[in-house]
Amino acid sequence: MTPSPHASAAQDPALIELESGVRSYSRSWPVVFDRAVGSRLYDTAGRGYLDFFAGAGALNYGHNPSELKRALIEYLSDDRVMHSLDMFTAARNDFISEFRTRILEPRGLDHRLLFPGPGGTNAVEAALKIARKATGRTNVLSFTNAFHGMTLGALAVTGNALKRGGAGIPLTGAVPMPYDGYADGGDFALLERLLADPGSGLDAPAAVIVETLQGEGGLNPARVEWLQRLAELCREHGIVLIVDDVQMGCGRTGSFFSFEEAGIVPDIVCLSKSISGYGIPMALTLVRPELDVFAPGEHNGTFRGVSAGFATAAEAIRQYWSDDTLAADVRRKGERTGVRLAAIAEAHPVIAVRAKGRGLARGIEMSGGEIADAVCAEAFEHGMLVETSGPRGEVVKLLPALTISDAELDEGLDILERAVAAVAGRTLARATASTEPEREEQPA
């Protein structure tokens, strides 16, 4: 048997046995990673892998960006406060000041900052609680193929059956509606009728929660006009509009917030993943002042103030969001990527359906989940990390670092093109073999 090219970096089977079976990414990439710089990870054998996964969007500025690393090392070496709950600290003040000056004020936003806990699902749970308390209503409208987190409230507004099934109890308090492009007909004809009809059975919603570009749901982008009409409906009916920007915020779509292109102002915005800039757990719920209804201590948590995260987050804002340079570069690279992916999809119709996405959240929808898995596995064999998304895992999803160089971007797209071609070739060969009639043996 030919040894695996990754054998020298394989995980110890005894250690695998100690882990829960719930682990997932390590099944797709069965090597032990040790170092990471920029857009590359290195396993314990020293092999490099081009990273088009970026911590599921938690590493928008790449691995260990030097300016942020310097800020973190200085923070640690000076014995600065590491754990502070919600006490005032210099690091907290620095982040809030930078966020207000460079993010909120230039966009005309007056939202207050609530630090709910370390993860995106914490930001969503806080948003849902605020909306329900502020309106006195309980029902929340969500959308097909949405993903908002793994805790019970966030799962209730998530569409994925596998994720929902892990709850073990009924998930209530939410009603799904068709996302943009999900169903034929008027964009909001059904919702408008349900909201207006006292006999519809739809309780007046406290909130609508939406992703402007569904990441885990399959890279489904909402049109500007669809988002604008949704915002209008929320205003007309006194519904709190929550935008979940956990994965698509912090520049992923080509602007700091993914909703900026639509010109809407959400009542609540959920941020996490890349808000710390360094992969340090941190989450943020932005709330319009009139919705800031929690009493002191009514929503808290032990790790709602990870000070090292404040230090790197403030530096990330200074480094990347003092002007429009990064945003413009993301838009440029995103357009190049979209054109390239469309060409790859068009060249291999036997397995590829279409290119999808916006900014630097891009991908190709394949004919099925097994095909997408095969493309990702092929890419991994050639030294590239890329994952799948979509309700059936049918989309090959690219989330490269926003700071990726043009050369690395082209390198990754080249690997992906070869992977798609290889899987398409095998698929076509199998299809041809299965349809060829058996040859009858000729008499001697």
UniProtKB/TrEMBL annotation:
<dbReference type="InterPro" id="IPR005814">
    <property type="entry name" value="Aminotrans_3"/>
</dbReference>
<dbReference type="InterPro" id="IPR049704">
    <property type="entry name" value="Aminotrans_3_PPA_site"/>
</dbReference>
<dbReference type="GO" id="GO:0045303">
    <property type="term" value="F:diaminobutyrate-2-oxoglutarate transaminase activity"/>
</dbReference>
<dbReference type="Pfam" id="PF00202">
    <property type="entry name" value="Aminotran_3"/>
</dbReference>
<dbReference type="InterPro" id="IPR012773">
    <property type="entry name" value="Ectoine_EctB"/>
</dbReference>
<dbReference type="InterPro" id="IPR015424">
    <property type="entry name" value="PyrdxlP-dep_Trfase"/>
</dbReference>
<dbReference type="GO" id="GO:0030170">
    <property type="term" value="F:pyridoxal phosphate binding"/>
</dbReference>
<dbReference type="GO" id="GO:0047307">
    <property type="term" value="F:diaminobutyrate-pyruvate transaminase activity"/>
</dbReference>
<comment type="pathway">
    <text>Amine and polyamine biosynthesis; ectoine biosynthesis; L-ectoine from L-aspartate 4-semialdehyde: step 1/3.</text>
</comment>
<protein>
    <recommendedName>
        <fullName>Diaminobutyrate--2-oxoglutarate transaminase</fullName>
        <ecNumber>2.6.1.76</ecNumber>
    </recommendedName>
</protein>
<dbReference type="InterPro" id="IPR004637">
    <property type="entry name" value="Dat"/>
</dbReference>
<comment type="similarity">
    <text>Belongs to the class-III pyridoxal-phosphate-dependent aminotransferase family.</text>
</comment>
<keyword id="KW-0663">Pyridoxal phosphate</keyword>
<dbReference type="InterPro" id="IPR015422">
    <property type="entry name" value="PyrdxlP-dep_Trfase_small"/>
</dbReference>
<dbReference type="GO" id="GO:0019491">
    <property type="term" value="P:ectoine biosynthetic process"/>
</dbReference>
<keyword id="KW-0032">Aminotransferase</keyword>
<keyword id="KW-0808">Transferase</keyword>
<dbReference type="InterPro" id="IPR015421">
    <property type="entry name" value="PyrdxlP-dep_Trfase_major"/>
</dbReference>
